[in-house]
Amino acid sequence: MESKLSKLATFMKQKYDNIIKNNTSLIETTKANNSSSDKASVSDKENSDEEDSDEEDSSYIGSDGIDIHVEFDTRISSIDGMSVRAYFTVYKHNKMIKINIDSKYITDRDSDDEFDTVCYYTTMLFNDFAKDQKDNQFVSYYIDEFMQAITKFSDIIDKLKFNRTIGEFLIEGEDDENEQEIKLMQDFFSDIKNISLDCEPCSICNEITKTKTECKHSLCYWCWEQLIINCDSSSSNKCPICRECL
Ligand SMILES: [Zn+2]
Ligand SMILES: [Zn+2]
């Protein structure tokens, strides 16, 4: 009997293969228009699990700098109480699968000086390699590799705890040294009057946090999210200190 894991892994592999095949055709068509002589064949490779068809892709995708990847949304909507979008990114380039967990509500603003526009990026709360890069080649994935990635992901998410100080998910029991260091430094240096620190008590919950609003006020992501979720439609999300928009 086919397990849930291998069913999911098989589905992901098929979807990945199809998308890559279609994307490769698309790019090759574009390229064929630019340089008529270059005509690599993709259509004849019918879902073969072998590495043979991928070698010719590598040269030109690499040289064009196109990073083809396929995302799989896990449909997980919250982890440890934080609203998230959690997904796998399967890269064609470098053969790696990443686990990404982004905040559903909190975005980072980044202004582009050249055009003076402001871009919004979803705030990354966690990422890790589910399958680390082994080589620099374009090779197809095996079902086993998807199975390993899914297994690693499900093991990790079960242990994730949201850390207000750092503003990220940490794997329970790992890496709390950093948090401890931040708190000790803050505790010691906060008594000195003519300095400011990049970590201060959150404006709402008072937990020491590294995360700050655009207006430079300390606000942990936990409280930040609560502000956004609980704001009524008549007022937009405002900084609790200066009322600037979040
Ligand atoms: Zn807080
Ligand atoms: Zn503010």
Helix/strand class: alpha+beta
Specify Rg, calculated over alpha carbons.
23 Å
Helix content: 25-40%
Shape: globular
In DSSP terms (H or I, runs of 4 or more residues), the helix count works out at 5
The proportion of residues in beta strands is: 15-25%
Determine the mean pLDDT: 80
Terminus-to-terminus distance: 51 Å
Low-confidence runs of at least 5 consecutive residues? 36-64
Q: List bound small molecules.
A: zinc ion
The count of domains is 2
* Main sheet characteristics: 5 strands, antiparallel
Q: Topology, pairings included?
A:
Elements: H1 4-34, H2 55-64, E1 69-73, E2 78-79, E3 82-91, E4 96-112, E5 117-131, H3 143-157, E6 160-163, E7 168-171, H4 177-189, E8 200-201, E9 208-209, H5 221-230
Antiparallel strand pairs: 1-3, 2-3, 3-4, 4-5, 6-7, 8-9
Helix pairs in contact: 1-3
The structure holds zinc ion (2 copies).
Could you explain how this protein is built, in words?
By secondary structure, the chain is an alpha+beta fold. The protein folds into two domains: 4-158, no CATH class; 163-246, no CATH class. 32% of the residues lie in helices and 25% in strands. The strands form three sheets. Strands 1, 2, 3, 4 and 5 form a five-stranded antiparallel β-sheet that branches. Strands 6-7 form a two-stranded antiparallel ribbon. Strands 8-9 form a two-stranded antiparallel ribbon. Bound molecules: zinc ion (ZN) (2 copies). One zinc ion is lined by residues 213, 215, 217, 239, 241-242, 244.
Give me a quick take on this structure.
The protein is of the alpha+beta class and 246 residues long.
